């Protein structure tokens, strides 16, 4: 029944069109002309088989939207049928199909007279809007039934019904760039998204606009971050991964560096107070234990971090500018003000010998702004400026990007020959530190490295 296709030394197994038609898989909401089986499905089937006992055990399979959890259920169904094993499948709230030796039968999910026989696997696809959880017959069968539910990571889809039984969870990783090179690298590992973009529906330009719009809403806090389902926006911004080889715990990450750049670009338009509030929210979300918020959280809490040669901190508002301060009262830390002049600079940090112009934007879409640099140079007392080495410090996630930033030929720097370019590595989306822990760390700019 299965056929094989070899691509780049990789062997793929699939079912041909004529076989798919005979299986009437349209009843299970499957309409594509080819059913492709991934190697990951074999791993999943082995894990499920090992969990079938004890009798009070059920399984919940979660993962990144678009990865193919529905197709996994079809794979499990075909494996069971090829071995002549009883299997029930539910993909809508209206009915379920029971496959036995006598053939398939369609039943009402509320029919109390239907009891599944011992050894039946009850497969529930909760990735559709209609079937939120396994039906009544699956949950209350008097026989020895093993329930397998595929679902998004939203807890309310599985936590309630699994309270009465022991639950195993398996979270499966997204596809790798092997299968969809450029699109996956830029837009993330969702197979559904990559196939749609490869077909041109939507176009790459339209998809980028959607990502920018979603990132803007995400940054503005219009999405319900305290209780949101990652699957709602994960095909646009997030990728959901198992945390370790046990696959019992999942975590959300910004899907790609390209999307991270877009998110950071949107965030730079907000003032420090808005940024701090936003990242306080997402830092507390159970799925976002290591957000890019650590970067901004650290920068925005500089005024509470003990720093050498910093006797006090003065935040400047619209009524107090640098020209109002003389050399003796110049603030050691200048918090970003609400003006587009400084959208690319997060802070100014002054020490006895240095002036650091801190740029925490790690997106290459943003360049140094001449207007901001001119304003700073004009309004810092001349003697103060001349007696200190001034440098622009980029806060970046890795050395490679730091070298990229500091080696860039910025056209505006020909008018600012006294400026040096340096960078400080602060990993984005990889730190497990909380904001309070970050607040105890030393200010990052003191360890700036020359390229």
Question: What would your notes on this structure say?
Answer:
It is a single chain. α7 crosses α9 and α10 (272-283) crosses α11 (293-300). The protein has 451 residues and is an alpha/beta fold. The protein has helices at 17-23, 39-51, 69-82, 136-140, 181-187, 191-199, 204-220, 230-233, 257-267, 272-283, 293-300, 370-379, 382-386, 399-407, 435-438, and strands spanning 3-7, 10-15, 35-37, 57-63, 87-90, 96-100, 103-107, 121-125, 146-151, 166-172, 238-242, 250-254, 333-335, 347-350, 354-359, 389-396, 420-425, 449-450. The protein is elongated, with a radius of gyration of 28 Å. The chain has three domains: 3-172, Rossmann fold, CATH 3.40.50; 181-267, no CATH class; 296-450, no CATH class. It is built from 15 helices and 18 strands. It has a seven-stranded mixed sheet, covered by helices on one side. A six-stranded mixed sheet has the order 13-14-15-16-17-18. The model is unreliable at 175-179, 224-228, 286-343 and 427-451 (pLDDT under 50). Helix content is 30%, strand content 20%.
Strand order of the largest sheet: 7-6-5-8-9-4-10
Mean pLDDT: 65
Topology-level CATH name of the largest domain: Rossmann fold
CATH architecture of the largest domain: 3-Layer(aba) Sandwich
- Specify the biggest β-sheet: 7 strands, mixed
The rounded distance between the terminal residues' Cα atoms is 59 Å
Helix coverage percent of residues? 25-40%
Number of H- or I-type helical stretches = 15
For this structure, what is the CATH class of the largest domain? Answer: Alpha Beta
The portion of residues forming beta strands comes to 15-25%
Radius of gyration: 28 Å
Whole-number total of structural domains: 3
Identify the overall geometry: elongated
pLDDT below 50 for ≥5 consecutive residues: which ranges?
175-179, 224-228, 286-343, 427-451
């Amino acid at each position: 029944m299965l056929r094989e296709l070899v691509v780049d030394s990789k062997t793929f197994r699939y079912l041909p069109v004529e076989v798919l038609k005979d299986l009437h898989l349209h009843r299970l909401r499957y309409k594509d002309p080819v059913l492709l089986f991934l190697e990951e499905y074999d791993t999943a089937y082995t894990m499920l088989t090992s969990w079938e006992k004890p009798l009070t055990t059920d399984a919940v399979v979660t993962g990144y939207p678009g990865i193919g959890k529905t197709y996994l259920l079809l794979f499990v169904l075909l494996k069971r049928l090829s071995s002549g094993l009883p299997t029930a499948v539910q993909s809508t709230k209206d009915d379920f199909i029971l496959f036995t030796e006598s053939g398939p039968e369609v039943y009402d999910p509320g029919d109390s007279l239907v009891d599944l026989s011992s050894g039946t696997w009850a497969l529930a696809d909760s990735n559709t809007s209609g079937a939120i959880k396994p039906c009544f017959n699956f949950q209350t069968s008097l026989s020895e039934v093993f329930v397998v539910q595929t679902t998004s990571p939203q807890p309310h889809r599985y936590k309630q019904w699994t309270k009465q039984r022991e639950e195993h969870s398996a979270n499966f990783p997204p596809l790798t760039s092997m299968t969809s090179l450029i699109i996956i690298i830029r837009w993330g590992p969702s197979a559904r998204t990559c196939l749609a973009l490869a077909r041109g529906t939507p176009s790459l330009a339209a998809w980028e606009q959607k990502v920018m719009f979603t990132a803007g809403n995400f940054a503005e806090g219009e999405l319900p971050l305290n209780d949101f389902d990652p699957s709602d926006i994960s095909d646009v911004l997030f990728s959901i991964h198992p945390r370790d080889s046990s696959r019992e715990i999942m975590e959300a990450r910004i899907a790609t560096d390209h999307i991270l750049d877009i998110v950071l670009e949107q965030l730079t338009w907000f003032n420090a107070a808005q940024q701090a509030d936003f990242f306080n929210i997402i830092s507390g979300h159970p799925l976002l234990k290591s957000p890019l918020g650590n970067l901004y959280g650290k920068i925005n809490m500089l005024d509470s971090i003990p720093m050498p040669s910093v006797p006090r901190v003065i935040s400047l508002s619209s009524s107090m500018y640098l020209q109002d301060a003389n050399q003796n009262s110049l603030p050691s830390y200048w918090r970003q003000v609400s003006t587009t002049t400084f959208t690319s600079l997060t802070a100014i940090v002054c020490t006895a010998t240095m002036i650091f112009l801190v740029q925490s934007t790690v997106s290459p879409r943003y360049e140094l702004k001449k207007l901001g640099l001119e304003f700073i140079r004009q309004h810092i007392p001349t003697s103060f400026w001349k007696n200190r080495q001034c440098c622009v410090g980029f806060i970046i996630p890795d050395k490679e990007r730091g070298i990229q930033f500091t080696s860039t030929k910025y056209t505006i720097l020909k008018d600012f020959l006294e400026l040096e370019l340096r960078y400080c590595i602060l990993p984005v989306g990889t730190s497990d530190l909380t904001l309070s822990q970050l607040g105890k760390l030393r200010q990052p700019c003191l360890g700036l490295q020359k390229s």
